[in-house]
Design goal:
Blueprint (H helix, E strand, L loop, with lengths): L1 H13 L1 H4 L1 H24 L4 H5 L3 H5 L1 H4 L2 H19 L2 H8 L3 H35 L11 H26 L2 H19 L6 H4 L3 H8 L16 H25 L3
Helix pairs in contact: 1-9, 3-7, 3-9, 7-8, 7-9, 7-10, 7-11, 9-10, 9-14, 10-11, 10-13, 10-14, 13-14
Length: about 260
C-alpha cells in the first residue's frame, strides 16, 4: 500500500494542471474572503441593530472558501486527479501495475483526500484569521462559542467535498462531464434552489448546503435561508453523499473495462 500511495502522490505532483490548482485556489480563497470581510465591515456600520444581531462573522469570513474558489479548487483537483487517468490512457498501465482494483482505487482516493486535508488545514486557518482581522470589531475569535467547531467543520467540508468529487469522476470517467455536473450543482443550482419554497425541501440536503450549515455559528432566522437540521446532522449528510459517490466510483471501476 505504501508503494501505491507513493505512485499516486507522484501522479498528483507531476501533473501541472492538477497540482497548480491548489495554490491558485489558496490565493483566490484568501483574497476573496478578505475583500468580502472588508466590504461587510463598511456595511455593518450602517445596518440596523436587529440585522447586525443575525450577522455571522464565521460564514462571512469563509465566504471565499464555502461559496467560491476554495471549494472550486478542491472539486477541480479531485476530478482531475481521477479523470486524467482515463483521458491520458494511463489507467491501463495503472491497473496493469496494480491489478487489485479495490486497492488501486483506495490508494488513489486516500492520496487525493490527504492532499485536500493538508490544503484545508493551511487555507482555512489563514482565511479565518485574515478575514476576522478585516472585520475588525465585528469579527470573532476561535475561543468564541462554536467558532472552533465551525472552523473544523469548514476543514472537514472541503476535504469531504474533494473525496465526493473523486467518486463522481470515477463514475463518469470524464473531466468535462464531471465538472459540467458538479459546478452547476454546487455553485449555480443549489445555492438558489435551496432557498425556493417547495424545492428547498429537497435541495437543502445537497452537499454544499450541508457544508454551509457545518460552518454556521449564528442560526438563520429567515425561513428562506434556514435549514431543517444542525451542524452534526449536516456532517452526517455530507458523509453519506461522499460515501455514496465513492462506492459508486468503486463499483464502476470494478465492473467496467479500463
Amino acid at each position: 500500500m505504501k508503494e501505491i500511495l507513493a505512485s499516486e502522490w507522484t501522479k498528483i505532483r507531476t501533473v501541472r494542471s492538477t497540482f497548480w490548482t491548489l495554490p491558485l485556489g489558496f490565493v483566490l480563497s484568501v483574497g476573496i474572503s478578505l475583500l468580502i470581510a472588508l466590504e461587510f465591515r463598511v456595511k455593518l456600520g450602517s445596518m440596523p441593530t436587529e440585522m447586525r444581531a443575525n450577522f455571522d462573522p464565521v460564514v462571512i469570513g469563509f465566504s471565499g472558501l464555502t461559496y467560491g474558489q476554495g471549494q472550486l479548487a478542491l472539486v477541480v483537483f479531485g476530478v482531475l486527479s481521477v479523470s486524467t487517468e482515463y483521458t491520458s490512457g494511463m489507467i491501463r498501465a495503472s491497473l496493469a501495475a496494480v491489478p487489485r482494483r479495490g486497492l488501486f482505487y483506495s490508494a488513489k482516493v486516500l492520496a487525493g483526500t490527504l492532499v485536500a486535508l493538508g490544503v484545508s488545514l493551511v487555507t482555512v486557518p489563514v482565511t479565518f484569521f485574515m478575514a476576522q482581522a478585516a472585520l475588525g470589531r465585528y469579527g470573532t475569535s476561535l475561543g468564541a462559542h462554536d467558532v472552533l467547531r465551525a472552523t473544523l467543520g469548514e476543514i472537514l467540508y472541503l476535504t469531504l467535498l474533494c473525496a465526493f468529487a473523486m467518486g463522481v469522476a470515477a463514475m463518469l470517467r470524464s473531466s468535462a462531464l464531471s465538472l459540467g455536473i458538479l459546478i452547476p450543482l454546487l455553485f449555480l443550482g443549489s445555492q438558489g434552489l435551496a432557498n425556493v419554497p417547495y424545492i428547498k425541501t429537497i435541495a437543502q440536503y445537497l452537499p454544499d448546503q450541508a457544508g454551509t450549515v457545518m460552518t454556521q455559528v449564528v442560526t438563520m432566522t429567515d425561513p428562506r435561508f434556514s435549514r431543517d437540521y444542525g451542524p452534526w446532522t449536516a456532517l452526517a449528510i455530507l458523509v453519506t453523499w461522499t460515501a455514496a459517490a465513492l462506492l459508486g466510483g468503486y463499483l464502476t471501476l470494478r465492473s467496467r473495462d479500463a
